[in-house]
């Protein structure tokens, strides 16, 4: 019996040790499996986060482009020439509270002052914008097609009694000013386009 007790005493703790080792091994395998799963999930989660971040950035870019598209859409029904005339007047017109915006095309070779025989001629085709009243002023220019214009400092009406003289006309042609035209607010541009005659 004593041998039985001793054998039981030795076998029982050994059995418990084996079971404990077996549980640790199983637990260790589970941890390894969990670690592998976690490692597989981490890149997937990181990739998912990257996709989410890219989607957010794309959405932000789309939102930023939206007003630009809307602006383009707002002016899409008008010709590029009408938009140009309105932008030029908006930036350079003396009076913004006009009743009408008149557009006159003047061909190359026409005199600056049609009432003066000594007048120099325009070296290029120009556009003359003016309001309905003399006080509204005028803008005479040629377009460069790149967002800039050449502004001629020509009055809407010349003093018919006294010829200006060749020097004055030459000075006007020689001193044209190149100006970059800003796009302006679409609402203001549309309002001016609708005033064109």
UniProtKB/TrEMBL annotation:
Keyword annotations: Signal
Keyword Signal among record annotations: yes
Region Disordered, residue ranges: 25-78
Residue ranges, compositional bias (Low complexity): 37-58
Signal sequence, start to end: 1-20
Domain of life of the organism encoding this protein: Bacteria
Composition skew (Acidic residues), residue ranges: 59-78
This protein's name: Lipoprotein
Lineage: Bacteria, Bacillati, Bacillota, Bacilli, Bacillales
